[in-house]
UniProtKB/TrEMBL annotation:
DNA-binding region(s) in UniProt: 33-52
Keyword list, A-Z: DNA-binding
A GO molecular-function annotation: DNA binding
Official protein name in the record: HTH tetR-type domain-containing protein
Record InterPro entries: Homeodomain-like_sf, HTH-type_Tx_Regulator, HTH_TetR
Stored SUPFAM superfamilies: Homeodomain-like
PANTHER family per UniProt: ACREF/ENVCD OPERON REPRESSOR-RELATED, TETR-FAMILY TRANSCRIPTIONAL REGULATOR
Domain spans labelled HTH tetR-type: 10-70
Superkingdom classification of source: Bacteria
Short name of one Pfam family: TetR_N
């Protein structure tokens, strides 16, 4: 078992992530092999497999770490889902989607599907956690909160994704004007 706190392990994982990110900018996800990653990171394939099951696990790890690093403190400690919390979630999701799609080549549907699914799950869990602490939702059962969280997540994520695709990603203030009103009116209890 690999000790995740060992500086050598951390350094090796960082080399693997940097190699993978560099390759993503040059090649499509589907054409990247473990051999490519290992060579770029100057490690052997066995070392790669000591850290990750496959390139999909590596992609999920990179996605999760990057997304978690973007979560604003206000959202992490939010006790209620209010305009400011929603605003932060919209901006964070938009920033993540724009930075991801500008960094990675988009000629692979598999990478987009994996990343989109991972981000949606993380965003939904974050929203669900906030709703479970919010007095407006406190009396609702867990299934109700899950459904409302899923709908709220879908609205935020879809708005940010469409914003990227429609080419207005340099004006998140315009996205906020549309999405914030829609989400908060939908939650009006």
């Amino acid at each position: 078992m690999v000790n995740q706190e060992d500086p050598r392990v951390l350094r090796t994982r960082q080399l693997i992530k940097e190699a993978f990110s560099s390759l993503l900018q040059k090649k499509g996800f589907d054409s990247i092999t473990i051999k490519d990653i290992a060579e770029k990171a100057s490690i052997n394939r066995a070392t790669f497999y000591a850290h990750y099951e496959d390139k999909y696990a590596l992609l999920e790890d990179i996605t999760e770490v990057a997304f978690n690093n973007m979560i604003p403190e206000k959202v992490l400690h939010a006790e209620e889902f209010n305009d400011e919390t929603c605003r932060q979630l919209i901006l964070m999701t938009c920033d993540y989607i724009v930075s991801f799609y500008k960094t990675c080549r988009l000629d692979s549907k598999s990478i987009a599907t994996i990343v989109d699914e991972k981000i949606r799950k993380m965003l939904q869990l974050m929203i669900e956690n906030i709703f479970s602490k919010d007095a407006n939702f406190f009396k609702r059962d867990s299934l109700n909160i899950k459904i409302i969280s899923a709908m709220t997540c879908s609205a935020i994520y879809s708005a940010a994704y469409t914003w990227l695709k429609e080419g207005e990603n340099d004006r998140p203030d315009l996205l906020l004007d549309i999405a914030l009103t829609y989400v908060m009116k939908g939650l009006d209890l």
